[in-house]
Specification:
This protein is of the alpha/beta class. Strand 6 and strand 7 form a beta hairpin. Helix 4 packs parallel to helix 5. The protein is globular, with a radius of gyration of 18 Å. The site of S-adenosylmethionine has 20 residues, from helix 5 and strand 2. InterPro entries: SAM-dependent_MTases_sf. This is O-methyltransferase. It comes from Lithohypha guttulata.
Amino acid sequence: MKSDSPTPVVASLRVQQLLQKLHALSDVEEKSWSQRFFYLTRLVRFLVFGEIWSAAADEHMRDKFVALDRDKCQFIYLLTRSVGACNVIEAGTSFGLSTIYLALAVGQNVLLQRKIAAGTTSLTGKVTATEKEHAKAVKARLHCKEAGDEVEPWIELREGDLLESLKVDNGVPERIDLLLLDIWTPLALPTLKLVQPMLKCGAVVITDNVGIAKLLYREFLEYIRNPENGFRSLTLPYSGGLELSVYLP
Ligand SMILES: C[S@@+](CC[C@H](N)C(=O)[O-])C[C@H]1O[C@@H](n2cnc3c(N)ncnc32)[C@H](O)[C@@H]1O
């Protein structure tokens, strides 16, 4: 969605400039012919062979941003602030662009809540970020470090397959306020089911590209849109469709 409004994101000039730089790099990559050709090939392979994902697709994406657009990141930042989320899981971190927005919001929420509770420093929170590609995790760490104190202390990046790294006995908080699902489509439902027992009542789940990849998300959407599974859900008209779901079991 195009908007003329100024960014709602509270951050130092240095972090704003870093975000702009990363979005610009990501935009160039997404608009490149090779990336467009890749998406077209994926579509054809799905229609002809029913192939949802492949090792070759993984290989192609190994050094790509595939980051959320600015407007989605800004929306997610503001949503995270508005629900006061302190414990967030990000399924799919890539180079850490959306992670920086989440960490800004979580850090600001925690500091606000500490202030309200008269400086109780035991109040804390974090973004549990996940990335299976080592090279991407290295870059994400560099970007978060570059963002500095407003961001880096609020992130715990777990490398490896999130279906392992997010198990609760691995030290993931037991009460999750917000889950961002920005992951390859076959992983969306298994990730949701893994995290669901940790979601607090009223927790928010955001899932990217549910419109454009509707067929690939079929089982996931059937699950999250069925109130018997505890969620109330609607699709927001961002590019590709952004599913906003609230856990109300
Ligand atoms: C769409 S990108 C995430 C983009 C990021 N949220 C952003 O906006 O900057 C999805 C990422 O999920 C990672 N991924 C795929 N399968 C994974 C798995 N099983 N465990 C952890 N990460 C995985 C991919 O390597 C890829 O970097």
